[in-house]
Amino acid sequence: MNNRVLTAVVTLLALATLTLGAVVVYALMRPGRPASGVARVGLGATRLVVPTDYMRFDGDRGGGDLDRLDLAARFPDFAPAGRVALRPGADIQERTDATVFLSLTPGDSSLAPEDRPIRLYARFLDPAEWSHPGGLIMRRFQPGSPYDGEELYIAPPEGRAFFARCSRPADKPDGLPNACISEMRVNGLNLQLRFSPALLGEWERVAEGVRGLMRGFAR
């Protein structure tokens, strides 16, 4: 190989190396990809720093001002579960039973969550009540009400410490896991929690785990 050909080959290899390096740098630094594994998020006036492994959707991982942020944490340690994965041999029910899903939105002037059991839901409830593990009281919503087919679980006496609306088990199971929804307002944010009825007896740990996450995210 003469010197002119050798020089051309070396030049081409150098250009290829530079091009590959540029592609890698762009992939790492392009907007929407947090390099540190955390994202700085604004929800209204509230600022959070959130590990991206908690985030359920790729579009949120770049951070910035958002209207809503969806997260997932694994019970009981509240480790990240944004990309929820099954352990070998696990089924969807096991995954759902161990995961708390969170939706965060900016706070507003709507009725405070702690006031909803007595001021919003009470008029739609059946008078009968049942006790539940964990010290909760369960009451069913009346047929034909806006919450027909759901049950309300409250921490006595009025549900201010905790409440959850849960779908009533279907007479003919459809294969979809039942779910409970609770709400709270923390650090100027509205939080909606979605979790399995299997965690109702652990409601205090669920509520404190969520508040602990929010304290850790706050900036």
Write a structural description.
The structure is a single chain. The protein contains four helices and twelve strands. The strands form two sheets. Strands 5-4-6-12-11-10-9-8-7 form a nine-stranded antiparallel β-sheet. Strands 2-1-3 form a three-stranded mixed β-sheet. About 15% of the residues have low confidence.
Protein traits:
nine-stranded antiparallel β-sheet; 25% helix; 219 residues; three-stranded mixed β-sheet; alpha+beta
Spell out the blueprint of helices and strands:
Blueprint lengths: L2 H27 L8 E6 L2 E6 L12 E2 L3 E6 L4 E2 L11 H6 L1 E8 L9 H6 L8 E3 L3 E5 L9 E5 L8 E5 L12 E7 L2 E7 L7 H15 L2
Parallel strand pairs: 1-3
Antiparallel strand pairs: 1-2, 4-5, 4-6, 6-12, 7-8, 8-9, 9-10, 10-11, 11-12
* Rg value: 24 Å
Mean pLDDT: 82
* Classification by helices and strands: alpha+beta
Provide the low-confidence segments as ranges. 5-36
* Termini Cα gap: 63 Å
Q: What order do the strands of the largest sheet run in, or round the barrel if closed? A: 5-4-6-12-11-10-9-8-7
Give the helices and strands as they follow along the chain. Answer: HEEEEEHEHEEEEEEH
Beta-strand content bin: 25-35%
Helix content: 10-25%
Largest sheet: 9 strands, antiparallel
DSSP E strands, number: 12
User: What's the total helix number?
Assistant: 4
